[in-house]
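queue> holo job accepted (fe (ii) ion)
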Amino acid sequence: MNDPNQPLSSVEQNPLASLDVWEDDLLERYPDPESIAQGKATEEYRNYETPGRDSVKEFYRLNHTYQTYDFVQGKKAEFLAFNKKEMSVWDAFQFLNQLVDDSDPDTDLDQFQHLLQTSEAIRADGHPDWMVLAGLFHDMGKVLCLFGEPQWAVVGDTFPVGCAWSDKIVYPEYFANNSDAGVERYQTKYGVYSHGCGLRNVDLSWGHDEYVYHMLKDYLPEPALYMLRYHSFYSQHREQAYDHLMDDHDREMFQWVKLFNPYDLYSKNPVAPDWKELKPYYEGLVKKYLPERIKF
Ligand SMILES: [Fe+2]
Ligand SMILES: [Fe+2]
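queue> job finished
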């Protein structure tokens, strides 16, 4: 156990062998109902043993210890200035792919392949093209890792800060280490918020969701933006733990977040889509909605 007041080394900050270990763990918590129906064990998703699980626990320990209200405000100020880098959309995918993952036994696919498989699964089901685009971009915020951010500040289930933590959040016991535990006004049900204030007024823990939402917020229709912003907010979209902060508009938009989630979780396939064949479609789609260059 580290003392929460001591600086952490890079290895300590990044316990997961890769970001995908977190996503594999999500599959264990929320297995694909279809593969259960077909009698496939979730075991098939991962055939490596407990080290993954231990590193996930350590990951959440760090995440829950250090994601404080003030931490979130600081990261918003730092990254929502978008003054780090500017790239064309396609260079951005190449940049994201520098996040290599050699540990995932499920798929040998890179970040872009996960995005493409998500967007292709959405497209195959005939959903609107802006939802396909949301699929293609939803994890672009993981470039935060390439700016030196630790894993616990990039991925992991997100949750509101500035109010009481729900015990529906995974590993809630680790919040005992969070310095906000000692701040009385953050420890009531509503904290700094009010009943039904709407999620746009609520700060969630910082990570790739919030970052990509701000990156694209001027370009995509609102349901797509909800998908980007809340796709890791499992304690709400799967557990309904924060209904009291939502307004009617959030409730309407969360239908889209829920529609999106299975495409993110269950579209992984070891067979890579044929990018050459798909490229013209995606180039057209990107042109339709997005500017030439994106700011990071
Ligand atoms: Fe994600
Ligand atoms: Fe994803």
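queue> The longest strand covers residues 86-88.
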